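Rather than argue in generalities, we have chosen a single entry, letters for residues, whole numbers for local backbone shapes, without further comment.
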Amino acid sequence: MADIRFRIGSSISRREFLALGAGIGVAAAFRGAPASAAAGPILTRAIPRTGERLPVVGLGTAIVFDIGDDAARRVERRAVIHTMLEGGGRVIDTAPSYGTAEVVVGDLLAAMQSRDKVFLATKVRAARREAAIAEMEQSLQRLRSDKVDLMQIHNPGSDAGATAAQLGLLREWKDKGVFRYIGVTHFQAAANERLIELMRREKLDFVQVNYSMAERSVEQRLLAAAAETGTAVLINLPFARGKLFSAVRGQPVPAWAAEFEAAIWGQFFLKYVLAHEAVTCVIPGTDKPEYMLDNLNAGRGRLPDAAMRRKMTGFLDSLR
């Protein structure tokens, strides 16, 4: 899922822009990190089923990677991926329903010879077996890969039998080594109870849900259920499609945010989400390398404790 965001603070430098335009801007962009850059390695968390550790900040591709053959934007998205990898990130999440995003991701990873450096996740929506097989085969072709790390059922419906059959097919492909992990996704609060039931009944590897300071319904039961069932959690829409940035427009980041090393609003919002220990990785849609740097820095340094998170939500609520 993608988030619409605007830049607060620094902008990309002329040196970075020229290097990026030449297709070699990644190192320059990383050296020219904004003043908000935090020191230290990015936090990692374990996938409960296996213990494999993932960096807590990754990359979503909905909308922002649906760019077709646009050469200039492909150069910029390539720089986003480079910046993520150089900064310690690994997770890229996409889907066949995201327009040309799968094709763009596959092309860029092949050109960069970086497929083995990323944890690649995509989705399947088709319910019928034959259609689902065709959709997954097409995803592999688009991604230029004979396997993906995580295959997810995209927004499963209320028919439990159909979802169980879909998961059965995914397990077959997992057993063959095409997928390493399987899971389900959703972005609506109305689906939370359905996902809880699936986690408990199907022993999923992953669940992907919508979670942000603006939309906190998963805090009520779902995240606790994920921890209880040993399910890894990917977070989409952490900026609530730009609603959070709109809410703080014109407002400075409060001085007390320095206690958990949030220098800009994007880090403030992401650190709130990452502070919940059930969250494995957050995947904001990101279209510029400097935004990728900001996001990665949210995964470094201190995170807010429970009391601070209450202060954060109280502050945000006071602005509405």
Remarks:
- The chain has a mean pLDDT of 89.
- Strands lie at 44-46, 53-55, 59-60, 91-93, 119-124, 148-154, 179-185, 206-210, 232-236, 281-282.
- The first strand starts at residue 44 and ends at 46.
- The two ends are 25 Å apart (CA to CA).
